[in-house]
């Protein structure tokens, strides 16, 4: 066993999870977690490794080559790619963009091709072809062509409007102009003519036409301010800075004309925040990073002009690389609807086959023996049955609703407009909003406001921020600190600890001034002056709050250049040389800056998360425990914390480190990893100064919203990167947790899951696939429990911990078959154990009323959502406001973006967006519920009316020798779904409400019908099918019985085929339109007009089509001349129609009355709901309509 275990990749089991540590980076690999200790490498492994290294030389990261002012360079043969056969094109894209799909010649064929890829459209195209075969079809070709053209036309018009808009946008963008060096000087050039390597000049407020390297600008040190709103939604300005050498030598036009720099960089990609490259010029290489690149889509601000060199153009730019296709989300009802359409296909084939067999039998018994039925064709009965099979496929084709998908899209579009008018939202997943089981929410900016306020701090172990005077005496009521002594104070900070101001002024503790100096110097904030006042532009609200706090306490950040930063220290202006900036990123969780003081001393200042800072402190650093205690206090008050520290650096130490830093900066491979390694060397033995605490308040209405969603049986999980104590206290603040809640933590859950796994193994093993599932609850059902788990414990429990390789390296080449089999079995056992463990965790977590996951990474957020989707088959919704929530938002069935302080990445990746969390209750409990009910009613009625219409042919076939003759006039079949029955059902799908919006919010329990799929499922589908079958029987057999052996009042027999068809059609139209009246809960004038208007439209068109005038014009197409006027003047016919309609509808009225009385729905159970809260006029309208039907 030992040898097998040593030879495999094993889980780390030698360390307990740390609640304070954010798990490994999402991008970390197994290789980065290998043991660094010495290991003895077997000889064979060494040979294998050396052979592989010789076979695969190290890949060079920077393979994109750009030469300035030399277009011919990029047209060399080795830069050409074969596009089609011998046609070649340059790998460098031109700058014209193309987002449209069609042109004038390709629109019709391409659009039709795309539409006929849909199964329903292709099915009706095949039907149309079959109808052109005389031996098969008894139905006119236009009965299928007209509805198909309507459906294709509506879709094509929508696609055309969208594509015309894209054409206009492309033309507008491609024809914008900027100045490009041509023939030795700047000339105005269209964007589409720009090429890689061109030198361009941009002016203030210009859009950037391509991804360019900043060479110089009008600002000091060639700074350039850009707005990235179109790129990431953030409106705050960011600054870019040119290389010092290009700033120095490339300011004038003649210098730019002769510039011949050569750039090697990464291939085009979609990473907006990363760039790796090197500029070769004047026999020297210079490192390039994202801070020197201006991206297409940004706008030049506060900079008179700048010059740049095009690196990526057109489709190669990062913004275009990010415009890939978004995964299309489909609702649960979509999938169910598709399966039901497939079911209808099967029913259609079976019914057609049965009737075809009947026709073959009838032909053999009767048809061949009846000379008057001879049609001149000597076909066998079986062949005639085969032809009739296709004939019935055509006749009964309306069982498959051609207009269903278009109608659904129209309803969703209309519902989206209604939601948009209410909440500024537009999408097509509306009915899925009425079926949500689980909500996964970010904390910062989603539950909270993400507007940061400096509240407290800990300096040298002393906590500041309480209400106390300058003598350290606490007061319950005290005036806020007066900052009028500070000329740079912004007057926005409310701070009540006068003792801190006393400490700053006295200077008794140097750490206090050092603390605020660090806040003023260690950041990436930009500053400009508006009307003489300092205006800060921060990349994050946290950083802005800290720099503003330092400003108010007397340490104001005034200006920065490429190599310096200027600070006002209690009124004294001092400038510091910036030697290096060690950037913040999600892996490092910290930022550092190295500066040289005016006195010549070198210092490193660092701020970051407490977990990463404490790992790097000097062993003798003072006040570590006191600061940790303060951090715990701040976390219990739901404040966000950062630790501050510094380090004195010797000149010699800095020079040695700077050489490594410069070498890593220009590395052509693995530059980020090399820089991180160099950063680690200098960021150690730090001295702790203290910690900051900033407040992020809850948004308005969060507790009320969570309470209502809980009453709707929606469970809310909070996924955040904050500390456990902060997350727990936010849980209490938003009433997700209460005093009665029993909280379980990671270690408790781990023990429970371990016990459950042992029990499952003892019952037959985790791997016994055929053992019957046994559902055992983890907790007693009566208890209110919540789960709080950290990212480290999450990885431990889900067996997602990063794996490390064993000290004995694995062989590269295949081993024996037995070893390969053992390895495969072992891997399967591990995967099965992991899957069972994850399923158990989901079962356990779903028994809790609330779940809070803290210290989790973006990847873990998405993983938790995916686990619930996978094992609970539940509809999920994820809501967040930042870039770290994008993965979670895309993973959930429905993603909601909060447009807040962290840019628009979450909004741009979401299905819905709004400004505050509290709008979620209206989105789900009102619009989601309405949309679900409307869509379910629409689908049930749509299937019913099509079954009632189509199956009349089925009953008629028993009386016409199964000959596939139609029971209706051809034009009635053509217009039934398009005109006679379409508008009322569409309006019901758009406007119907079972209760008002106020009642929907007042009774959240009404929401459960969507979660339980009560209104549309296979049971409801078969109810609609049976209802349609019974209606079709009544529609056929009552008129049939009435027509047998009858004489009209004029002495003539009305029982001809055409009069019979008119009677059935008239009864059908009245029945299905009155039926939707019974299904309508919320009556408006529009609904009533559509119902009675559809009936009137039917009679109007029928009388026109049966007139002599239209028969004279089109004798072959209109053959029911005079039928309507002759038949409908007979009172007997009207009595037949009225009887048929009454028999169809009265049982429905009776059944619904009984069901409301005996089996009331959730809305029926609400006391006095209709009488008290439904608008009186609407209630009276509904009552009168019901009375008129009775």
TrEMBL record:
Active site per the UniProt annotation: 442
Cofactor (UniProt): Mg(2+)
Record has Transmembrane as a keyword: yes
Reaction(s) catalysed by this chain's protein: ATP + H2O + phospholipidSide 1 = ADP + phosphate + phospholipidSide 2; a 1,2-diacyl-sn-glycero-3-phosphocholine(out) + ATP + H2O = a 1,2-diacyl-sn-glycero-3-phosphocholine(in) + ADP + phosphate + H(+); a 1,2-diacyl-sn-glycero-3-phospho-L-serine(out) + ATP + H2O = a 1,2-diacyl-sn-glycero-3-phospho-L-serine(in) + ADP + phosphate + H(+)
PANTHER family for this protein: PHOSPHOLIPID-TRANSPORTING ATPASE IC (PTHR24092:SF48), PROBABLE PHOSPHOLIPID-TRANSPORTING ATPASE (PTHR24092)
Quaternary state and interactors: Component of a P4-ATPase flippase complex which consists of a catalytic alpha subunit ATP8B1 and an accessory beta subunit TMEM30A. The flippase ATP8B1:TMEM30A complex can form an intermediate phosphoenzyme in vitro. Also interacts with beta subunit TMEM30B.
Protein name: Phospholipid-transporting ATPase
Lineage of source species: Eukaryota, Metazoa, Chordata, Craniata, Vertebrata
